[in-house]
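Why does residue order matter? Because the sequence determines the fold. Keep that principle in mind as you read this record.
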Amino acid sequence: MAPPEALPALRPHPSRILARIVFLPLLALGLCACTPRQLVLDELANSLASQGQSAEDDPDLARDAAPFYLKLSESVLREQPGHLPLASAVAGGFTQYAYAFVAFEADRLDATDARAAARLRTRAAALYRRGRDHALAALEASRPGLRQQLETQGASQTLTPRQVALAYWAAAAWGGLISLSKDDPDTVADLPTAIRLAQLAWASDPAYGDGALASLMGSFETARPGGSRQQAQVYFDEALRLGAGHNAGAFVAKAEGLAQPAGDKAAFVALLQQALAVRDTPGGPLTLSNAVMRQRAEWLLNTADDLF
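Structure:
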């Protein structure tokens, strides 16, 4: 199953992080005498959550900046477990980092260093698990009993917009973890629960992420036992419609999720070429996502002869 294809929040510009995030804890020290600690933590959590949405067009710069941001954000989230936007930013950050910078590197190393690739996939699985657990913990805190409902018959209530974001990242991270855990039956057995969580997000806001959720639904449909290729195509086509030609990940997801398994090299190449042709709006939310997905599209095109 394809991992999450949209990377709207990965990752803040380092100069902004250093200017705001490093400064805020120092500022907090000066305010502690007159400002309640909770207010300082709230401000820091808000700042970190908003930084998680900063635009960046340089994947290498984002990769280098991400560990500092994630560690700091994770430590603040432990103090502010009910801060749903920060929980989404942290869960999304770990998920995107695992996909874009660890699992993708493993894919590229497969042909030359299988052992290094295996080590990277083990690390990516741990990062996916970490992101999933942050999102699930925040969801459970805001909707007690939700996970138990999902594990039994599924939840029928709709989610709030903030909960939809958490559900998307939890399901995306879960899907990534499962895709790297073929030798772990207990993890693979969680696939129906992950799918139910994605379905709950879909029922609440099918347009979430400019096609990101639709692509995830398509990936899950192709991964589940007895999944319908026709239904998966509906999801992937909806992702393309929602992306309106601006979401490179939607093209890559359909190429890997439908064309490659079907052995349709012509469609595979055409979709990847469309991904490469996507041009970004300066400062847009998909800028970094598109940069990463164009890199993947180019790599897939270069290895197409080995894939078919």
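The mean pLDDT is 87.
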